[in-house]
């Protein structure tokens, strides 16, 4: 279906725009071809394919409020100087044969950070990294011995189950992994998310230090992700793609003793959340 200027009306006409696409590709080869088409189209329209990867597991949560569409097996994240350029790419890819490669695509458009916010994040990450590696890596050679207790504190709707975590710890995936976090902040009686965002920010500052302490980094961050035509109540306030050097590093972070005390702020801040664990395609590390 062609995209018009009326698409994604929740986004401003100017400013950087991002697209998060949850894709059910017909095959691994089709997934790489879809990423290649997206990379080419983005480049020709002044944008950039920020990251592409394979979905290994939905660790917890509901991605888009109960959609019956096929579960995604691939993710594409791209950014553009304006909404018009993002819409032009969506149309161009269809003309170049994207539909023959995929069974379903769910597209969330979001506000991408500007240069000042990106620069501040780089400075903060560098400062933490210079402090040295402090977060322990989990020993996955004996998964049965891993203590997941720090992860299991708090609201069960906002965290994985122990069974899901043990499944991931034993899945045999090697190399860098990316965790796609989708976040909706808790509102007060007047619909104000300020307090919820502040509470989650306290959680995020501690979690961020743990992530950087094991060599991880934020790959992508965006605000107000929503599907075309969806109302505000069904959208996400923030999306964060966090890259870890390995599965062992991710498990080490969420099982670190310093992690458990942060869950109270996480629960206070969030209304709902979802977490997809992914593997980067080699080309897009």
Notes on the structure:
With 285 residues, the protein is an alpha+beta fold. It has two domains: 17-111, Alpha-Beta Plaits (2-Layer Sandwich), CATH 3.30.70.100; 115-284, Alpha-Beta Plaits. 31% of the residues lie in helices and 28% in strands. It has seven helices and eight strands; from the N terminus they run βαββαβααβαββααβ. It has helices at 28-44, 83-95, 115-130, 162-169, 194-212, 247-254, 263-269, and strands spanning 17-25, 48-60, 74-80, 102-111, 177-185, 217-227, 236-244, 270-280. An eight-stranded antiparallel beta barrel has the order 1-3-2-8-5-7-6-4, surrounded by six helices. Helix 1 crosses helix 2 and helix 5 packs antiparallel against helix 7. The longest helix is centred in the C-terminal third of the chain and has 19 residues, at 194-212. The chain starts with 16 loop residues before the first strand and ends in a 5-residue tail after the last strand.
Number of helices: 7
Helicity, in percent? 25-40%
Shape: globular
Q: How many β-strands, per DSSP? A: 8
Tell me the name of the CATH class of the largest domain: Alpha Beta
The stretches of 5 or more residues where confidence is low (pLDDT under 50) are: none
The structure class reads alpha+beta
Mean pLDDT: 88
């Amino acid at each position: 279906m062609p995209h018009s200027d009326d698409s994604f009306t929740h986004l401003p006409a100017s400013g950087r725009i991002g697209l998060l696409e949850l894709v059910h590709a017909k095959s691994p080869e089709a997934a790489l071809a879809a990423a290649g088409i997206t990379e080419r189209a983005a480049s020709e329209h002044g944008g950039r394919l920020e990251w592409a990867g394979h979905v290994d597991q939905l660790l917890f949560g509901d991605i888009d409020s109960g959609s019956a569409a096929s579960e995604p097996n691939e993710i594409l994240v791209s950014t553009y100087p304006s909404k018009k350029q993002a819409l032009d790419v969506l149309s161009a890819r269809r003309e170049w044969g994207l539909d023959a490669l995929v069974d379903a695509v769910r597209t969330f458009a979001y506000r991408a950070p500007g240069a000042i916010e990106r620069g501040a994040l780089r400075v903060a990450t560098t400062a933490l990294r210079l402090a040295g590696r402090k977060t322990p890596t989990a020993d996955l050679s004996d998964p049965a011995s891993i203590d997941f207790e720090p992860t299991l504190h708090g609201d069960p709707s906002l965290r994985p189950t122990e069974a899901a975590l043990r499944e991931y710890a034993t899945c045999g995936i090697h190399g860098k992994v990316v965790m796609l976090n989708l976040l909706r902040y808790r509102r007060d009686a007047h619909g104000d998310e300020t307090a919820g965002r502040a509470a989650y920010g306290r959680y995020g500052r501690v979690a961020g230090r743990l992530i950087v302490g094991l060599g991880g980094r934020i790959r992508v961050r965006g605000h107000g992700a929503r599907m075309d035509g969806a109302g505000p109540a069904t959208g996400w306030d923030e999306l964060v793609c966090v890259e870890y050097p390995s599965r062992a590093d991710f498990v080490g972070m969420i099982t670190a003793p310093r992690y458990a005390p942060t869950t109270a702020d996480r629960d206070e801040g969030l209304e709902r959340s979802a977490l997809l664990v992914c593997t980067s395609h080699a080309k897009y590390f």
